[in-house]
UniProtKB/TrEMBL annotation:
SUPFAM superfamilies membership: alpha/beta-Hydrolases, DPP6 N-terminal domain-like
Protein name in UniProt: Prolyl oligopeptidase family serine peptidase
A Pfam short name: Peptidase_S9
Taxonomic superkingdom: Bacteria
Record-annotated Peptidase S9 prolyl oligopeptidase catalytic domain positions: 400-602
PANTHER family: DIPEPTIDYL PEPTIDASE FAMILY MEMBER 6 (PTHR42776:SF27), SERINE PEPTIDASE S9 FAMILY MEMBER (PTHR42776)
Length: 607
């Protein structure tokens, strides 16, 4: 599509079109729900009374709000209040029907959030993380004047879940020092004693992670739903924390084979069945599992990606679905569209093709979208963040915009990505960044050899970890890329470690196998600043000045070195954190990227 002078172009329509998240509903008041929407141009929290279909905006802040939770009785809306996207703040609450906000738990200091649990009996657990104290979990008992500390450790952890009756607390922790593989401790809140521990890391040659998925939704039921990696991928099991028994769930597909990829689960409200999500090779599907009969039933969802699902008390399942070609909507297994954002539906885009390329660590999966016309095309390699995340067959306005402008788009699920088994994810250690770029480079070679991509018009692009890989790739693979677009990136990894939030410091120590003082050669080899002299391609960088994940000082260090070396570059700094929740700001940033590419690629490349 060509941009038109007197009409809003399709790519901008996709950004401006309102969208909604999957609604979260109150356990004891299922007609009361919360969701996040950009309907006013900024992502904010909305309350939805399903019995009257009344929608009300709960928050209204210049840089938006996304973290919110309903109390089980549906009376209160809790939301996290930070400053201009810095992620450092406190929880506030407001009545569901509207009214003034108040500090939710006075006495809990401002911090980075490490989780929240709201009990049915009024028990509250607030998780905090700070550079000085690490992880602290505060408990406020019903009727108590203030909170008390029930857990504290220097390593990163967080709130897992409260039991339905408020007597037990599950804590996800990494006290063993491995931030990629958590353990679980269950505390008895009557006296704070540790009741049970599930640790698949300590004393093992091959560490396996476990993660809390939630207590059974019934008073007095001590079963905790847990995700484990004992089979080399994520699978669910039941752990009776009082009896100490574990029941691994044997889940098989229609042919009786173990599922590839990862499996997650959540309780259905009856506590006798589970909702299962299967994630594999960039797509997902849903199943229902009966705990009494061990029967697994596939639920009807279209081919694409389920970005969240919830089981309702009436037996239906609601889910947020999209594909690369079709915009998202909240659907139900009843066949209805449960919630659609107001206003026009955004224009669709191009379906993805699956490509597999032999890489140095195994077959690499890439998602490819082609523009109209014959190749070879100018091509954007859009690199995902995380790093333990993955690109999926889901709707995204950014890639669709490049397609509208005549570019092919390639997204690579490099080693470190999720959805391909634990070995693929855990391969991202020690040679951080360099491993991922080997896989991206292999797909780049395929794209050129196959005739998809023009080798003289290749753009390496990404945000967060993808922005880091962009800067590192421009320096370590200087002959591979024509331009670079790095959003909220890491440019100077050593300075980033000094300034970033504690949760990421913990992850970095795990990835590198030590601190910068302990393994300095690994950190230097993986820092884009080390390789900046080799950069040939013009590079565009955008960064939030309040970003706690990829702090601005280390970006400035990298930019200063570009300036000293006379490298072609442009920088855009904006007043927010790790990205923006304001639609106009997102559009502005993409316009700046498109303009940069238009000026630095061959004339006529950008439609």
């Amino acid at each position: 599509m060509n941009e038109q002078t007197n009409a809003v172009p399709a790519w901008e329509q996709r950004f401006r079109a309102a969208r909604v998240s999957l609604p979260d509903w109150a356990d004891e008041a299922p007609d009361r729900a919360l969701y996040v929407s950009n309907a006013t141009g900024t992502y904010e929290v909305y309350a939805w009374d399903r019995s009257t279909d009344e929608h009300r905006r709960v928050t209204d802040r210049p840089n938006g709000t996304t973290d919110a939770e309903l109390s089980p009785d549906g009376q209160w809306i809790w939301w996290f209040d930070d400053t201009d996207g810095d992620e450092f703040g406190v929880w506030r609450r407001q009545p569901f029907a509207g009214g003034p906000d108040e500090e939710a738990v006075p006495g809990v200091p401002a911090a980075y959030s490490a989780g929240l649990a709201l009990g049915h009996d009024g028990t509250v657990v607030v998780g905090t993380s700070t550079d000085d104290e690490g992880t602290t979990l505060y408990l406020r008992r019903p009727g108590a004047a203030g909170p008390e500390v029930v857990y504290r450790h220097a390593e990163y952890g967080g709130v897992g879940d409260l039991s339905h009756d408020g007597t037990l607390l599950a804590v996800d922790h990494t006290e063993h020092g491995d931030a990629m593989h958590s353990a679980i401790r269950v505390l008895r809140l009557a006296d704070g004693a540790a009741l049970a521990e599930l640790d698949e890391v300590t004393g093992r040659d091959e560490p396996r992670g476990v993660a809390c998925l939630g207590f059974a939704p019934v008073d007095g039921d001590p079963r905790l739903l847990v995700a484990h990696q004992r089979t080399g991928r994520w699978e669910p099991m039941l752990w009776d924390v009082e009896a100490g028994t574990e029941t691994e769930l044997v889940l098989r597909d229609e042919q009786g084979r173990p599922f590839p990829g990862d499996l997650s689960a959540q309780w259905r409200p009856d506590a006798r069945s589970l909702l299962i999500e299967h994630e594999y090779e960039a797509r997902s599907e849903l199943f229902s599992y009966d705990l009494d009969t061990a029967e697994l039933t596939r639920l009807d969802t279209p081919r694409g990606t389920v970005a969240g699902a919830t089981a309702r008390p009436d037996g239906t399942v609601e889910f947020l679905w999209s594909s690369a070609a079709e915009p998202s909507a909240v659907r139900s297994t009843s066949g209805a569209v449960v919630l659609r954002a107001p206003g026009p539906v955004p224009p669709g885009s191009v379906p993805v093709e699956d490509v597999w390329v032999d890489g140095p660590g195994g077959r690499v999966h890439a998602l490819v979208q082609r523009p109209a016309g014959e190749g070879p095309h100018p091509t954007v390699f859009e690199v995902h963040g995380g790093p333990t995340h993955h690109d999926s067959d889901s709707f995204a306005a950014g890639p669709a915009a490049w397609l509208d402008h005549g570019f092919a788009v390639v997204r690579v699920n490099y080693r470190g990505s999720t959805g391909y088994g634990q070995a693929w994810t855990d391969a991202l250690t020690e040679r951080v960044g360099l491993i991922e770029l080997e896989d991206i480079g292999a797909v780049r070679d395929w794209a050129v050899a196959s005739g998809l991509a023009d080798p003289d018009r290749l753009v390496l692009s990404g945000g967060s970890w993808g922005g880091y890989l962009t800067l590192l790739g421009l320096g370590t693979q200087p002959d591979y890329w024509t331009l670079g677009l790095a959003a909220v990136p890491v440019g100077d990894y050593l300075a980033a470690y000094e300034d970033e939030m504690e949760a990421l410091k913990s992850l970095d120590r795990t990835l590198f196998g030590g601190t910068p003082e302990e393994v300095p050669e690994r950190w230097r080899a993986s820092s884009p600043l080390t390789h900046v002299e080799r950069v040939k391609a013009p590079v565009y960088i955008s960064a939030g000045v309040n970003d706690p994940r990829c702090p601005i000082r280390q970006v400035d260090n990298y930019v200063r070195r570009l300036e000293e070396l006379g490298k072609v570059h442009e920088v855009y700094r904006y007043d927010a954190g790790h990205g923006s929740l304001v639609v106009d700001e997102r559009i502005k940033q993409l316009r700046l990227e498109i303009d940069f590419v238009r000026r630095h690629l061959a004339p006529g490349t950008v439609r």
